[in-house]
Structures are given as structure tokens and as C-alpha cells.
Amino acid sequence: MSYPEAWLKSAVEAAAGLKAWPVSVPEGAAVPFACYRRMQTDRERHMGGAACMPPVASFEVELYAEGYTQAKELAERVRLACDTFKGEAGGILIERVDLTDERDGDPVFFEGHDKPTYMVVMVFSVRWIEKYPRS
User: Fold this and answer.
1) What domains appear along the chain, each with residue ranges and CATH number?
2) Is the peptide bond before 32 cis (omega within 30 degrees of 0)?
3) What are residue 23's phi and psi, to 5 degrees?
4) pLDDT, tens digit (0-9, with 9 covering 90-100), for 8-56
5) How would you list the strands of the sheet with 56-65, edge to edge?
6) Which residues partner with 58 through β-bridges?
7) Helix (H), strand (E), coil (C) string for 49-86
8) Whole-prediction pTM value?
């Protein structure tokens, strides 16, 4: 079965021109990079079991860059590529993507760097159909 994470990873990498990792980033990764994670999944339920509504999940994307302006530029590229996306992606049908939050993260001081690495945090809500038949 396919998952929206595959779409999110490829969309972020293509839009921002960087490497994106799920959940954690390998030590020594070259900046700029992104890290993404699923924060929550809602599946509507009825008394008889699962409802017919597709699941919706919240995904956090952290974008890291050497400068504040670069981090903001990367975030704008990702916003343009992902916000309001609809379509087929990797065997699932994504019904709707919404950017629900965007904020500055705290600067990070990585080992071996004398300047801070800046971060923008974005949260996307993604609704998808899980059993989308390939044609």
C-alpha cells in the first residue's frame, strides 16, 4: 500500500532542491535539508466501524538553511508546490493538501558550525484515498 509520505518527500525535494528525510536527519547532513513526520491521523468512525470518509493526516516539515532568507525562500517554494495540491501520487489519490501553519523555528547550532542554521516549520493537512486502483 502507498502512503502520502512518499508524495510529500518527493514534492519537498523537487520544489526546494534539497534532500528530505523522515523523522530524523543523519548526522553531518549537508545544509540545506528537510525533515518530515506524520504528527496525527484522523480516521472517522461510526458505531459499526470505519466510516467511508478518507483519512486526513497532519504532517510537519522542517526546512533547514544556512541563512534566514534562504530558509524563507525554500519555504515559499514548498508552499507553492504543496498547498492546495490534488492528484494521483504513487498509487494513492490525494484529495486535498492545505498548509495549516508556517512559522520560524529556533536557530540550531550544529557541531562544527560557527553560525546558526535557520529553520522554517510548516504543517500540512493531507486527505487521501487509501485504496486507489492504478490504471
Assistant:
1) 4-129 (3.30.2000.10)
2) yes
3) 70, -50
4) 999 999 999 999 999 999 988 999 999 999 999 998 766 555 556 788 9
5) 19-22, 33-42, 56-65, 118-129, 92-104, 87-89
6) 40, 125
7) EECCCCCEEEEEEEEEECCHHHHHHHHHHHHHHHCCCC
8) 0.89
- Greatest Cα-to-Cα distance within the chain, rounded to the nearest angstrom: 58
Cα–Cα distance list, 70 to 16, 39, 66, 111, 120 (Å)? 10, 25, 7, 20, 10
**What is the 8-class DSSP label of residue 112?**
T
Q: How many residues does the chain have?
A: 135
What is the C-alpha separation between 123 and 37, in angstroms, rounded? 10
Give the 3-state secondary structure of 8-22.
HHHHHHHHHCCEEEE
